[in-house]
C-alpha cells in the first residue's frame, strides 16, 4: 500500500497522520501549536517514528492555518504571511518538510483541505467549508478543485451587519476590529460575554447573535459562490442547537430570494461528514493528487 503523510496545521493544534484518505491513518498524533521550533520538532519526531514503523511516504499533504502565500511564482511561496499568531509569520512548513524528508509536499489552507475532504465524502464538485473556532475561515471547492485566486479565500474577514444586541462590542480582530472573525469567532464570544457558547444558557442573547453572524456568512456564500453545499465545522459549531439557528438566520438574510434553499436548507447547510478530522483527510487528498500528477508527468 502506498502511504502518504498528512498534516492539518491549526492555530491551536497540529493533527498529523500517516496513511491515506480512504484507508484512514495507520499512525496519528495531535501536537499543541506553540512556537514554531518546538511544534515542528514534535512534528518531525512523529514522522520519524512513523517512517520507521510503516515505511516510506510517497508525498505529504499540508493544510495549514494562514494567511499563506500560495502563488508558486512568489518568492515567499508556501510561507505563512500576516498571521496574528506570535512567531509564525514567515514560517515555511512545507519547505521544512521537503528539506527534511526529500519528498513532494502539497500545501493549501486548512479550510480548503477540509472543503476538499467534505466534497469527496459527498461525491459533489461544489462545496463551501466554513470553520468557526479560534478563527473563522472558508474553503471553496469549485468544479472539484480547491479555489485559489490571487490568494486563498479570506471570508472570515468580511464586514457584516452588526447585530443590535452587540452594539457595545468593538470586536477583537487586530486588523479590522468588527469583521466576521472579530465578532463571531470563539475568542470573540468569550471577549463579548465572558464565556464560551457552551457555558452560556440557552436563552442567552449570544446564541441568536452568533447564529445571525454565521447566517450572514452563509447567505453571502450562497449569493456570491452558489455552492451546492455549505459545511460548518470548528469548535463553536460543535454546539448542536446552533446549526438550526444558523439555517434560519441564513434564510432570513436571503429574504426568499433563493427559493431553492428554502426547502433544502436542512440538507445543504450541514455539519462535516468526514470520518477523521476533515482537514487531515483533505491533506491526504492533497498528497494523493500531487503524487498522481507526478506519476502522470513521468509517464511516457
Briefly summarize what is shown.
The chain contains 10 helices and 10 strands. The protein is an alpha/beta fold.
Key words describing this protein structure:
2 domains; single chain; 300 residues; 5-stranded mixed beta sheet; 10 strands
Strand order within the widest beta sheet: 3-2-1-4-5
Number of domains: 2
Give start-end ranges of low-pLDDT stretches: none
Strand content: 15-25%
Largest sheet: 5 strands, mixed
- Judged by helices, strands and strand pairing, the structural class is alpha/beta
Order of helices and strands: EEEHEHEHEEEHHHEHHHEH
Q: How big is the Rg? A: 19 Å
Helix content: 25-40%
Distance between the termini: 24 Å
* CATH A-level architecture of the largest domain: 2-Layer Sandwich
CATH superfamily of the largest domain: ATPase, nucleotide binding domain
| Overall CATH class of the largest domain | Alpha Beta
- State mean pLDDT (0 to 100 scale): 92
The geometry reads as globular
Number of strands: 10
Query: Which fold name fills CATH's third level, the topology of the largest domain?
Result: Nucleotidyltransferase, domain 5
What does the model show?
It is a single chain. The chain has 300 residues and is an alpha/beta fold. It folds into 2 domains: 4-110 and 275-298, ATPase, nucleotide binding domain (Nucleotidyltransferase, domain 5, 2-Layer Sandwich), CATH 3.30.420.40; 113-270, 2-Layer Sandwich (Nucleotidyltransferase, domain 5). Helices cover 39% and strands 18% of the residues. It contains 10 helices and 10 strands. It has helices at residues 36-54, 93-101, 110-122, 180-184, 186-193, 205-224, 240-254, 259-262, 265-268, 278-298, and strands spanning 4-9, 13-20, 24-32, 60-64, 105-109, 127-132, 136-142, 145-146, 230-233, 269-270. Strand 7 and strand 8 form a beta hairpin. Helix 3 packs across helix 10 and helix 6 (205-224) packs across helix 7 (240-254). The protein is globular, with a radius of gyration of 19 Å.
Amino acid at each position: 500500500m502506498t502511504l502518504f503523510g498528512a498534516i492539518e496545521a491549526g492555530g491551536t493544534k497540529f493533527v498529523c497522520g500517516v496513511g491515506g484518505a480512504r484507508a484512514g491513518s495507520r499512525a496519528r498524533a495531535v501536537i499543541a501549536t506553540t512556537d514554531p521550533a518546538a511544534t515542528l520538532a514534535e512534528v518531525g519526531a512523529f514522522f520519524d517514528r512513523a517512517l520507521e514503523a510503516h515505511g516510506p511516504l510517497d508525498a505529504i499533504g499540508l493544510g495549514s492555518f494562514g494567511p499563506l502565500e500560495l502563488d508558486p511564482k512568489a518568492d515567499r511561496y508556501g510561507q505563512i504571511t500576516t498571521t496574528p499568531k506570535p512567531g509564525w509569520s514567515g514560517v515555511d512548513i512545507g519547505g521544512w518538510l521537503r528539506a527534511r524528508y526529500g519528498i513532494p509536499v502539497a500545501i493549501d489552507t486548512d479550510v480548503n483541505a477540509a472543503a476538499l475532504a467534505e466534497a469527496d465524502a459527498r461525491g459533489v464538485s461544489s462545496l463551501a467549508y466554513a470553520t468557526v473556532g479560534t478563527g473563522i475561515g472558508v474553503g471553496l471547492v469549485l468544479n472539484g478543485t480547491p479555489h485559489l485566486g490571487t490568494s486563498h479565500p479570506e471570508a472570515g474577514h468580511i464586514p457584516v451587519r452588526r447585530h443590535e444586541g452587540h452594539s457595545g462590542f468593538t470586536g477583537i480582530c487586530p486588523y479590522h476590529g468588527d469583521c466576521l472573525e472579530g465578532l463571531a469567532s470563539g475568542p470573540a464570544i468569550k471577549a463579548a460575554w465572558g464565556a464560551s457558547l457552551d457555558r452560556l444558557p440557552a436563552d442567552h442573547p449570544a446564541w441568536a447573535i452568533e447564529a445571525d453572524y454565521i447566517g450572514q456568512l452563509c447567505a453571502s456564500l450562497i449569493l456570491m459562490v452558489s455552492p451546492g453545499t455549505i459545511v460548518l465545522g470548528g469548535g463553536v459549531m460543535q454546539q448542536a442547537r446552533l446549526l438550526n439557528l444558523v439555517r434560519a438566520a441564513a434564510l432570513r438574510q436571503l429574504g426568499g430570494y433563493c427559493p431553492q434553499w428554502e426547502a433544502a436548507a436542512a440538507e445543504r447547510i450541514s455539519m462535516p461528514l468526514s470520518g477523521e478530522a476533515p482537514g487531515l483527510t483533505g491533506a491526504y487528498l492533497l498528497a494523493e493528487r500531487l503524487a498522481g500528477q507526478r506519476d502522470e508527468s513521468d509517464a511516457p
